[in-house]
Design brief:
Blueprint (H helix, E strand, L loop, with lengths): L1 E6 L2 E6 L2 E5 L25 H4 L3 E3 L10 H4 L8 E4 L5 H7 L6 E4 L5 E4 L2 E7 L8 E7 L2 E7 L5 H11 L5 E5 L14 H26 L3 E5 L26 H9 L14 E3 L4 E3 L14 H8 L1 H10 L8 H12 L3 H7 L2 E6 L3 E6 L6 E3 L7 E4 L5 H5 L5 H6 L4 E4 L6 H9 L2 H12 L6 E6 L2 E6 L9 H4 E4 L3 E4 L4 E4 L15 E4 L25
Parallel strand pairs: 3-4, 4-5, 5-6, 10-11, 11-12, 15-18
Antiparallel strand pairs: 1-2, 1-13, 2-3, 7-8, 8-9, 9-10, 13-14, 15-16, 16-17, 18-19, 20-21, 21-25, 22-23, 23-24
Helix pairs in contact: 10-13
């Protein structure tokens, strides 16, 4: 088995007569309206040989993973294999590259691509996030490609059992994908502190996942992206040692400092041979360093025309967008009373050349308004980016990942359901979340200790049902954090401190922890707002 890095989260896997491409991203216009670009550049790999493939595997709908531009260049008989999601968004993006066979696999269902070459997907447990890991098995070898997915310990252990032997290559995202706090109105020092906390949280998850899987080799990848538009170039500062986009070298050093040394850095074209357990580097990157220098400046100069072409496709509107805005959000408000109630706030849209409009999700006050009024969330961005959203040409999450906006919120609490409603806006996807979150909860409890006090709490997180025995971190000050989505709860009151994550059943107890065999133990990680996706 040979694994070749294609740049970012892309892999080429050669095994037993099959060639599989995983999440290939080559679009010269980058992704998310020419905001993200491959780092380092990978266009030298775009050869005729690369296009001769058995199948393409795509994990999820983000445009740095599904690339219609590249898919359009593949022979039409090459199938694309994807996880089955309740939203049609990923299928639509794949087919926008031209007609071809799309195979949707249910969770954990294995497909034999050719004789003895098998693949299956493992989606995140909560359907509010459409991300999946992929597992490729052949000839006694296996690759666990987790890309952007955040799997639970239970899922990782089940994958280990399914492959029976140690995972040969474990590829997982170390860089994160976030517009928080980059696009928020925070003082510089607070933004720096949040960025560092998010970085540590992400890398801590990577370390825990590697320790659970115990692979032969682990490969941090899936970024970082770089930003070449002159309006966004300043965000490259977040690639630094305290930024939220750690590069592969930084991730590998961080893991080594914590005793995890079986790692490899693969840049575009580098190969890992799983049979000989050796790396075959390419000469192109002999002197490359993520430290920057002139590389990003020169790269930006090579992409000026592509950025300009994208911006030209999205001109500022010459007519009022108010009728379209009112119709769009009127439809959104009618989709899910459950989501409206969970959101429960008034959201403002401050479009400098159009004015300030608002959408009120509060039950009994729902409506679309031409004045912002008192809003708890406000987004500010150019009108050139609004009309493609309203016309369905650009999904909300793609726009938010472009970093082409500013935002503030008061109180400063994450609203998971607001993002969920905006990015899905599809009844079946919203219903899947509602069913998942409202399923009867078990009465099982566990005992945790914080600052010398004991608390008996429900075992499963009230937000999305994560098992707190596996995903709970007890913090100083009587707080437990669920690592599933980073919601934090006050152990004394059960209140969610960082968003609208539900009420945790919790009671203080005096007797020692004698009725449970496992307790969640304290860890020293600072507070952080929930979700890498905020």
């Amino acid at each position: 088995m040979r694994v070749t890095a294609l740049g970012h989260a892309g892999l080429r896997i050669e095994v037993d007569g099959a060639v599989l491409l995983c999440d290939p991203w080559f679009n010269p216009e980058g992704a998310f309206q020419a905001s993200w670009f491959q780092y380092p550049e990978n266009r030298s790999l775009l050869t005729r040989e690369l296009l001769q493939t058995t199948a393409v595997l795509i994990s999820h709908e983000h445009m740095d993973h599904v690339d219609p531009w590249f898919l359009a260049r593949l022979p039409p008989e090459v199938p694309v294999i994807i996880p089955r999601y309740p939203s049609p968004q990923l299928v639509r993006k794949v087919q926008s590259g031209g007609p071809r066979t799309v195979i949707e696999l249910p969770a954990w269902e294995e497909l034999e691509v050719i004789d003895d070459v098998r693949v299956f997907f493992v989606p995140e447990e909560s359907p509010i996030n459409h991300d999946s890991a992929m597992v490729i098995r052949a000839g006694g070898r296996s690759v666990l490609n987790m890309n952007d997915a955040r799997l639970s310990p239970r899922q990782l252990r089940r994958i280990r059992a399914a492959v029976t032997k140690p995972v040969d290559v474990f590829a997982l995202q170390a860089a994160g994908a976030s517009w928080y706090p980059i696009c928020y109105e925070y003082p510089t020092e607070k933004a720096r502190e949040i960025s560092l906390q998010k970085r540590i949280t992400k890398l801590s998850y990577v370390a825990r996942a590697i320790r659970l899987v115990e692979p032969v080799i682990a490969m941090p990848f899936a970024g970082p992206p770089c930003f070449l538009d002159e309006d966004l170039f300043l965000h490259n500062v977040h690639l630094g040692e305290e930024g939220i986009f750690p590069d592969q070298d930084q991730a590998i050093r961080w893991l080594a400092d914590r005793g995890i040394g079986e790692t490899v850095r693969l840049l575009p074209g580098d190969v890992w041979d799983a049979d000989t357990r050796t790396k075959e580097p390419t000469l192109e990157w002999e002197n490359f360093s993520f430290d920057g220098g002139s590389y990003l400046t020169d790269y930006a100069a090579r992409r000026v025309s592509q950025v300009a072409a994208v911006r030209a496709r999205y001109p500022a509107p010459t007519e009022s967008l108010w009728p379209l805005f009112r119709e769009y959000f009127g439809h959104v408000l009618s989709m899910s009373p459950y989501f409206n109630e969970k959101i429960g706030i008034r959201v403002g849209f401050d479009i400098p050349d159009l004015g300030g409009w608002a959408v009120d999700f509060r039950p009994g006050r729902e409506g679309v308004f031409r004045d912002m009024g008192e809003c708890q969330y406000v987004y500010r961005f150019e009108s050139r980016w609004l009309w493609p959203i309203l016309e369905g040409k650009v999904p909300w999450e793609d726009f938010l990942l472009s970093l082409r906006f500013r935002a503030w919120r008061h109180p400063d609490l994450y609203n998971d359901h607001l993002l969920g409603l905006l990015k899905f806006a599809w009844p079946e996807a919203l219903e899947a979340v509602e069913v998942y979150e409202t399923s009867p909860a078990t009465e099982e409890t566990i005992v945790v200790e914080s600052d010398g006090k004991l608390y008996r709490i429900q075992r499963y997180c009230p937000h999305a049902g994560q098992d707190l025995l596996e995903t709970g971190e007890v913090l100083p000050g009587g707080v437990i954090r669920c690592l599933g989505h980073h919601y934090e709860f006050d152990l004394a009151t059960g209140l969610c401190l960082t968003g609208r994550g539900g009420q945790l059943r919790s009671e203080s107890i005096d007797d020692r922890c004698t009725d449970v065999s496992i307790c969640v133990m304290p860890t020293l990680v600072g507070p952080i707002n929930p979700s890498d996706r905020d």
